Amino acid sequence: MVAYQRYVELSSSGDSEERGQAAHLAAIAYLGHRGPADEHAALYAALMNFLDDPSVKVRAALAYGLLHSDHAPRPLMLALAQDAPVISRAVVQFSPMLLDADLMGIIRSGDPDMLAVITARPALSQRVALALTRLGNPDLCIRVLGRADIELPDDDLMMMAETWGEDPKVRGALFNRKDLPGQARLYLVECVRNALSGLRIVKGAIQPRRLDRMMRDACDSAATSIGEREAGRGQRGFVATLADNDKITARLMLHALVHGRVLFFADALAHLSQTPRRKVFTMLDGGSRAALHALFARCGFTPAVRNLLARMVSHARRADLADDVAARYFVVSLLIEELIAEHDGSIPPTLDEAFAYLNEQNIALARLAARGVMPAFADEAPDLAMLPDHTPKLALPAA
Predict the structure, then answer these.
(1) Phi-psi region for residue 72, left (φ > 0), alpha (ψ -120 to 50) or beta?
(2) Which residues of 333-371 are buried (b: 16+ CB within 10 A; e: fewer)?
(3) Are 310 and 289 contacting, i.e. CB atoms less than 8 angstroms apart?
(4) At what angle do helices 16-32 and 56-66 cross, to 10 degrees?
(5) In-domain check, residue 68
(6) Is residue 183 part of a domain?
(7) Do residues 102 and 78 make contact, with C-beta atoms less than 8 angstroms apart?
(8) What confidence tens digit (pLDDT) does each residue in 208-228 have?
(9) Are the C-beta atoms of residues 60 and 86 closer than 8 Å to each other?
(10) What is the pTM of this model?
(11) Could you tell me the pLDDT band of residue 79, with boundaries at 50, 70 and 90?
(12) The domain that contains 39 carries what CATH number?
C-alpha cells in the first residue's frame, strides 16, 4: 500500500521515472477505487494534472495504466489520443472509451499511421470499417478484409472487387472472405484470367489456342462451382446476374451437368424458364423426355441443344457425375458417339460449340481417369509381364 504522502513525493519528484510511477499508481487507484466520492474526485483531478507533465514517459505511464479499461475518464482518454504518437497510437488501438464518432474524426484527419492503428482495434464496427475501405487505400482494404469478425455488405464487397480487382494483394484478401458474394468472386476470377493471360512466362510456355481453351474451361468450372455454392445457400442473385449478362450458354449448362453441379443447373433453368425451382427438380429427377424438351424450350435453347441436354440429363440420372471422374468420361464419350451416329458424322452448325466442348472434356477427362491406373495395376499384379514373350521356338529342319 502506498500512502498519500509517498504518492505526493513521487509526483513532485524531478525524476520523470518517479513521476511516471506516480501517474501509473494514480491510474490504478482510480480504476480500483470503491471509497468516498471526494477521494474519487481527488484521484480524478490527479490524473488530469498529469496531462500537463512535460515528459512523454509520464504521460505514457498514465495512458498505459488506463489503456484497456472501460471505466477510464473519457475526457482524459480523448486528450491522450491527441498526444505524442507513441501514446496516441496505443490509445486509439486499445481504449474502449473511444466511440465510433471519435474514430470517424480521426479518419477524417487522414493520418496514415492512425488509420492503420484503427484497423487493429479489438472491436471494430461496420460503420468505421466501411469508412476505412472507402478511403481508396489498398493497404487499409487488406487490413479490414482480414477481419473475419466484421460483416461487410455485399454491395461494398462488390465495389471493392471492381475497384481493386487488378491488385493481386487486395484480390487475395477478397478471395479469403467467406462472405464474398458469388458475383464478386466470379469477377475476380476473370481478373485472374486476364492477369495470367498477359504474363509473358505463361504466353511463352503455352500455345495460344491451348491457353485460351484452358482459361475458358477454368472459368466455366469457377462459374459453375460458385453457382453451386450460391444455390446451396439459397442465393438467387448469382444466376440472375449471369442471365442478365447473357452468360448462361449451352456450353456452361453442359459443363454444369458434366461436373455434377445440379443445384446451379436447376437454378439456371428455373430462372430462364420462370418455373418454380421445386418443379424443375421434379422434372430433372424423373420427368419424361417431352417434359424436359418443353422446359428447355422455355429457356430459349435451340431444338438441337434441347435434345443434347435432355440426353445428358437422362445419362446423369444413372451416374454419380459429382465425384466419379470415370463416370463423367463414360457419359461424355457416350454422348459423342450418339451425336456422331445420329447425324451420320455431319454435326449441325447449331451444335458446333457444344460438340467442340464435349471433345475438349473427353480428352481432359480421359487424362484424369487414366492417372494412377498403371501404378494401381502394378500394385495388384507386380509380377505379371507387361509384354508377351516373343522368343522364337526352335523348329526341326525339314527331312
Answers:
(1) beta
(2) eebbeebeeeeeeebeeebeebbebbebbbebbeeebee
(3) yes
(4) 20
(5) yes
(6) no
(7) yes
(8) 888 988 899 999 999 999 999
(9) yes
(10) 0.83
(11) very high
(12) 1.25.10
Q: How far apart are CA 155 and CA 392, in angstroms?
A: 78
Q: How many CA atoms lie within 13 A of 314 on its CB side?
A: 14
pLDDT at 76: 95
List the one residue out of 60, 74, 93 whose CA is nearest residue 30.
74
44 domain residue, yes or no: yes
Q: How many domains does the chain have?
A: 1
| Contacts with 234 (C-beta within 8 Å, 6 or more apart), sequence order | none
pLDDT on residue 1: 47
Side chain identity, residue 154: D
**Structural domain range at position 4:** 1-98
Residue 271 φ/ψ region, left for φ over 0, alpha for ψ in the -120 to 50 degree band, beta for the rest: alpha
Is 328 within 8 Å of 366 (Cβ atoms)?
no
Q: Is residue 302 scored above 60 in pLDDT?
A: yes
- Does 398 fall in a domain? no
Name the percent of the chain in helix, strand, coil, to the closest 5: 70, 0, 30
Average pLDDT, the chain: 89
- Cα 120 to its chain centre, rounded Å, is 21
